[in-house]
């Protein structure tokens, strides 16, 4: 089969690699769509830890074409979305933290920038009949956002802010609205992304290049005291600090974006302490992955995919995503 191997930086090679085989308890999935994640972009920019040479890609959907021993042949032909790490349900992490941090099952895997992938049957989730595979491929980022939003204590008549309107910011905005935020501001400098936020439930759009965020705080929140809940969905420490600055006393700030490893938080800890701000990290899918395809059916995802690329043009897709040329970009490995 063909696969794109990451060689470091923004360098990839299109390679012929052995076809995967379905070992006991596993299935082989023919990949229909793989999404470009911000993490994929950050890996090519040395902002997220990864070791070349490897096949990246972890947001995917496709069709089961082979099953291993112990897996019903009825699964052949099923349309599925891929949860990219397995879980045992028995280890300390599965029982006390979340199943996406399983200590026993193999660590989170990539490998979806390829025509086929082999994985445990348990993590190939059958899709609802009416959910197309391109939409289903967004299950993983949506799960990360839903897991994060469900960590928040959202009060009655809450005001909310999301900084960043890439796909993670958009899903965070959508789930903030469905979980009780009454007035939601989305701040994003890229026009196409900012305007898409209306589709995801934003009440007020903010262009940080046009109006200082402090003016929005004064206009929207109770006597300018700050937002009930805020979320940073970009992965820049200075924007996490900005969220903390505009969170009201005893409010909560959520980190959805992944900041670079080792990055310090440029915030006045005395002020944060004095105002009793809660800062919450949300990394990964938590325990919600299997609920998300049903949640995606409820959202208006029209025109969210800004571009579709064949496997060989993966570097171009990553560049387009890095430069903010659209909202979400996808790879079709078997096109």
Structure write-up:
With 335 residues, the chain is an alpha/beta fold. It contains eleven helices and 15 strands. The strands form three sheets. Strands 3, 4, 5, 6, 7, 14 and 15 form a seven-stranded mixed beta sheet that branches. Helix 1 crosses helix 11 (314-322) and helix 4 (139-149) crosses helix 5 (167-178). The mean pLDDT is 95.
Question: What key phrases describe this protein's structure?
Answer:
335 residues; alpha/beta; seven-stranded mixed beta sheet; six-stranded parallel beta sheet; 11 helices; 27% strand
Poorly predicted residue ranges: none
The proportion of strand residues reads: 25-35%
DSSP helical segment count: 11
Radius of gyration: 20 Å
Query: So what's the overall shape?
Result: globular
Q: What share of the residues lie within helices?
A: 25-40%
> Can you summarize the main beta sheet?
7 strands, mixed
- Number of DSSP strand runs: 15
Rounded average pLDDT: 95
* SSE pattern, N- to C-terminal: EEEHEEHEEHHEHEHEHEHEHEHEHE
What is the terminal-to-terminal distance? 13 Å
Q: Given the helix and strand composition, which structural class is it?
A: alpha/beta
Sequence-ordered SSE layout with sheet pairings:
Layout: E1 2-8, E2 11-16, E3 26-35, H1 38-44, E4 60-67, E5 79-82, H2 92-96, E6 116-120, E7 124-126, H3 133-136, H4 139-149, E8 158-163, H5 167-178, E9 181-187, H6 191-199, E10 204-206, H7 213-220, E11 227-232, H8 237-245, E12 247-255, H9 269-274, E13 278-281, H10 292-296, E14 305-310, H11 314-322, E15 328-332
Parallel strand pairs: 8-9, 8-11, 9-10, 11-12, 12-13, 14-15
Antiparallel strand pairs: 1-2, 3-4, 3-6, 3-15, 4-5, 5-7
């Amino acid at each position: 089969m063909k696969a794109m191997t990451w060689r470091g930086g923004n360098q990839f090679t299109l390679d012929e690699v052995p076809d995967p085989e379905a070992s006991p308890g596993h299935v082989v999935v023919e990949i229909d769509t793989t999404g470009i994640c911000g993490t994929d972009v950050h890996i090519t920019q040395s902002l997220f830890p990864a070791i070349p040479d490897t096949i990246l890609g972890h947001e995917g959907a496709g069709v089961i074409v082979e099953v291993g021993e112990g897996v019903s042949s009825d699964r052949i032909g099923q349309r599925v979305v891929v949860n990219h790490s397995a879980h045992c349900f028995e280890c300390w992490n599965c029982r006390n933290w979340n199943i996406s941090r399983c200590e026993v099952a193999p660590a989170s895997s990539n490998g979806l920038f390829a025509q086929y992938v082999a994985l445990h049957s348990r993590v190939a989730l059958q899709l609802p009949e009416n959910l197309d595979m391109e939409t289903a491929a967004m299950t993983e980022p949506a799960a990360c956002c839903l897991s994060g939003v469900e960590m928040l204590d959202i009060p009655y008549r809450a005001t909310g802010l999301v900084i960043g309107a890439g796909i993670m910011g958009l899903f965070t905005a959508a789930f903030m609205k469905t979980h009780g935020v009454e007035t939601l501001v989305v701040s994003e400098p890229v026009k196409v992304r900012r305007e898409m936020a209306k589709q995801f439930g934003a009440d007020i759009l903010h262009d940080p290049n046009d109006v200082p965020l402090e003016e929005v705080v004064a206009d929207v929140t109770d006597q300018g005291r700050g937002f009930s809940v805020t979320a940073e969905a970009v992965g820049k420490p200075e924007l996490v600090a900005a969220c903390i600055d505009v969170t009201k006393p005893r409010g909560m700030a959520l980190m959805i974006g992944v900041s670079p490893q080792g990055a310090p938080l440029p915030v006045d800890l005395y002020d944060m302490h004095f105002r009793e701000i809660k800062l919450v990290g949300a990394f990964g899918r938590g325990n919600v992955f299997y609920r998300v395809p049903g949640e995606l059916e409820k959202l208006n995802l029209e025109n969210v995919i800004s571009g579709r690329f064949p496997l060989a043009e993966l570097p171009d897709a990553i560049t387009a995503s890095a430069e903010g040329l659209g909202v979400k970009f996808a790879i079709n490995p078997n096109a």
